[in-house]
Design brief:
mainly beta; outer membrane lipoprotein receptor (LolB), chain A; 14-stranded antiparallel sheet; 3 helices; 46% strand; signal
Length: 235
């Protein structure tokens, strides 16, 4: 069985049988592969978010199952964010003292725990956009030395913080290894990159991911957050 790659905030793990189901998948089939990979999840992970500029740290517990991806933050005020994977698109909920509520689209660009993640990143709405194109069937991420499909998805409207999103999907696993998001003026605003992975049996799980946000007016980096995770526990 080929190695699996887990991108925790994008949280994609796929079986080798799915990745090999077609010799040359279309862009839409690749996006479907990423979505279906959620059903492979059955892990509990602990770790932290760290702001590179301020040094702020947020402890994190991430639980992955076939129906829910749950982020639990313990620092006051405690907060749970869970992504309901039984709906299409997946539905993002925020749980705080006093109850839970669905995260509205108007809050999609809001920062999560004052880090470079926003609620759009956690909802992953872009995995359900219909306008998807193959940009490069043989793209490579040099640092990670992996071969990817590069696909681009375009939003149906400009209501969210991202208009186009480029996804580097690992050909051996169907996992997303890198993501770049652009606004409606084609300016880069966000980049996710898997930097390190854990070896877990015949699979690989996220060990470190770097998230960078950019000022679309001049291209300067606004912030950088690292997500580092301990080895996952089987549920």
């Amino acid at each position: 069985m080929k190695r699996r790659l887990l991108l925790a905030c994008l949280a994609t793990v796929a079986s080798s049988s799915m990745a090999q189901s077609v010799a040359t998948p279309t862009a839409a089939e690749i996006l479907g592969l990423v979505r279906r990979s959620y059903a492979m999840q059955d892990h509990k992970m602990t770790g932290k978010l760290r702001d590179e500029d301020t040094g702020k740290v947020e402890p994190l517990e991430l639980t992955l199952t076939k129906s829910v991806m749950r982020f639990r933050f313990s620092n006051p005020p405690a907060e749970i964010i869970h992504l309901d994977l039984t709906t299409s698109p997946a539905t993002l909920w925020q749980v705080k003292a006093g109850g839970s509520s669905q995260v509205p689209l108007k809050n999609a660009a809001d920062s999560v725990r004052e880090m470079d993640f926003n609620y759009e990143d956690l909802s992953q709405r872009f995995l359900y956009w219909k306008d998807v194109k193959m940009m490069n069937a043989n793209a490579r991420i040099t640092a990670a030395r992996i071969k990817c499909w590069l696909v681009r998805v375009t939003a149906p409207d400009t209501s969210g913080p991202y208009y186009t999103v480029d996804l580097w999907v690992h050909q051996e696993s169907g996992g997303v290894a890198k993501m770049e998001a652009y606004n409606s003026a084609s300016k880069l605003v966000k980049r996710f990159e898997v930097m390190k992975v854990w070896k877990v049996g015949e699979a690989s799980a996220l060990r470190e991911m770097r998230v960078q946000s950019f000022n679309p007016l001049n291209g300067d980096r606004k912030g950088m957050t690292y997500m580092t995770m301990d080895k996952p526990e089987k549920q």
